[in-house]
């Protein structure tokens, strides 16, 4: 079995790290990096730290408008697939790299597999929402992280090829948590104490591309009674500078470059709470039982909010301020995202299906 995996953005490297090693136990993987993220700290650091194999192809697409970026990826992925003739195209999450892979796969009439299928924010203004919906509908295999995601797919008429595997990010947090436990280097470097700081991330287009919202978030974070560490995404750097908000942010918050995964997970575990608009960070906070305040009105990771570990506050300064003072947390943590073996299940399902396809092909010859 030969699998062509498409990655391109930071969260996809984290997911691919665990899935890739499981896939390589059962077949051959062609790893394609679209180049959507390209800065050292947005890309290389994950390959180095997590032992992800060097991509077989780096398409070097980089940043552009959504349409042009996706179109360039499609144009670059198609010849790779034609040349390498994989049995399956494996896609992760909801970025433009995901959608580009789904379009190439479906146009070439090949099997497409989607990791993190069935998630919906029901907010069509998010570019990611359209990517999720289209990718699920172009996929033969939908690997759902939760029962809720399975139900969502069924509600859209997708029932064949749906597998509840659990969430691959749970696998990755489990793999890294113990590796970094007790390591104080990053805390010392940032001058913060375990349990006495807030970790924040902000990069969602809807929050960063609106000056008023971004300013409102900064004001909310600035009201925290503890230091706020903000590893800052390049999109957010760009917007803070162009809105003339950089100096203010730099004064009120501990702005640092984006961190590698090991340091970031260590901080997530050590933080008193997390404030974020990231999808992945909401989940990782949940897995590590660090309370999360989400700078969005809705989440596709509904289970984290329903059980009380994740509070959705949007971007209003007062709502953020109030959430930062909350100090009662649930006594128990449910486990809706599987058993931490999603990657292995995905590899096994693909292997089994490839064997069935081969048998059927032999029978029909
Ligand atoms: C993308 C995904 C988003 C995901 C995020 C993870 C889409 C539509 N969005 O958003 O779902 O949550 O990645 O971080 O696919 N930039 C750099 N260096 C880099 C990468 C980006 O400077 O290595 C800057 C560029 O100015 C670029 C901007 O960041 O225009 C946005 O990058 P892009 O990949 O288009 O979208 P993200 O906001 O990163
Ligand atoms: N992350 C990281 N360093 C950082 C910020 C995030 O390693 O400075 C990791 C985080 O642990 C998670 C992933 O990047 O695994 C989430 O990426 P991001 O928030 O950019 O994207 P999203 O999940 O919202 O698509």
What's this model, at a glance?
Residues 28-351 form the UDP-N-acetylglucosamine 2-epimerase domain. This protein has helices at residues 10-26, 44-50, 66-84, 96-107, 127-138, 147-155, 168-180, 185-190, 205-208, 211-222, 234-242, 246-252, 261-270, 279-287, 302-306, 317-325, 342-364; strands at residues 2-7, 28-33, 57-58, 88-92, 111-115, 141-144, 162-164, 198-201, 228-231, 254-256, 273-276, 292-294, 310-312. It is an alpha/beta fold and 365 residues long.
List keywords for this structure.
365 residues, alpha/beta, Rossmann fold, 7-stranded parallel sheet, 6-stranded parallel sheet, globular, binds uridine-diphosphate-N-acetylglucosamine, binds uridine-5'-diphosphate, WecB-like, UDP-N-acetylglucosamine 2-epimerase (Non-hydrolysing), UDP_GlcNAc_Epimerase_2_dom
Question: Could you explain how this protein is built, in words?
Answer:
The protein folds into 2 domains: 2-167 and 338-364, Rossmann fold (3-Layer(aba) Sandwich), CATH 3.40.50; 175-325, 3-Layer(aba) Sandwich (Rossmann fold). With 365 residues, it is α/β, with parallel strands linked by helices. α3 (66-84) packs across α4 and α4 (96-107) packs parallel to α5 (127-138). The relative contact order is 0.13. The strands form 2 sheets. It has a 7-stranded parallel β-sheet with strand order 3-2-1-4-5-6-7, sandwiched between helices. The chain contains 17 helices and 13 strands. It starts with a strand and ends with a helix. The structure holds uridine-diphosphate-N-acetylglucosamine (UD1) and uridine-5'-diphosphate. The site of uridine-diphosphate-N-acetylglucosamine has 19 residues, from α1, α5 and α11. Residues 28-351 form the UDP-N-acetylglucosamine 2-epimerase domain. This is UDP-N-acetylglucosamine 2-epimerase (Non-hydrolysing).
């Amino acid at each position: 079995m030969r699998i062509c995996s498409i990655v391109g953005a930071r969260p996809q490297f984290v997911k691919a790290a665990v899935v890739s090693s499981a896939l390589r136990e059962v077949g051959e993987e062609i790893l394609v990096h679209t180049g959507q993220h390209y800065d050292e700290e947005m890309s290389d650091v994950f390959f180095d730290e997590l032992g992800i194999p060097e991509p077989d192809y780096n398409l070097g697409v980089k940043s552009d408008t959504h349409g042009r970026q996706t179109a360039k990826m499609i144009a670059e992925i198609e010849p790779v697939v034609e040349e390498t003739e994989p049995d399956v195209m494996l896609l992760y999450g909801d970025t433009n790299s995901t959608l580009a892979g789904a379009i190439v796969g479906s146009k070439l009439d090949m099997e497409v597999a989607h990791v993190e299928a069935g998630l919906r924010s029901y907010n069509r203004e998010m570019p990611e929402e359209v990517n999720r919906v289209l990718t699920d509908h172009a996929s033969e295999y939908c690997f759902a992280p939760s029962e809720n995601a399975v139900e969502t797919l069924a509600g859209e008429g997708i029932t064949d090829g749906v597998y509840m595997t659990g969430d691959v990010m749970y696998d990755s947090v489990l793999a890294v948590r113990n590796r970094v436990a007790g390591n104080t280097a990053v805390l010392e470097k940032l001058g913060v104490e375990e349990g006495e700081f807030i970790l924040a991330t902000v990069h969602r287009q809807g929050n960063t591309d609106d000056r008023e919202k971004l300013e409102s978030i900064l004001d909310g974070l600035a009201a925290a009674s503890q230091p706020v560490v903000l590893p800052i995404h390049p999109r957010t750097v760009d917007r803070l500078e162009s809105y003339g908000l950089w100096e203010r942010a730099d004064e009120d918050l501990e702005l640092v470059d984006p961190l590698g995964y090991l340091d970031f997970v260590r901080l997530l575990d050590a933080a008193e709470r997390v404030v974020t608009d990231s999808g992945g960070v909401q989940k990782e906070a949940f897995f590590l039982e660090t309370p999360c305040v989400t700078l969005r009105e809705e989440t596709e990771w509904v289970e984290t909010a329903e059980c009380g570990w994740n509070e959705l506050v949007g971007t209003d300064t007062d709502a953020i301020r109030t959430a930062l003072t909350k100090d009662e947390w649930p006594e128990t943590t449910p486990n809706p995202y599987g058993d931490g073996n999603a990657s292995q299940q995905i590899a096994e399902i693909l292997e089994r299906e490839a064997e069935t396809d081969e048998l059927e092909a032999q029978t029909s010859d």
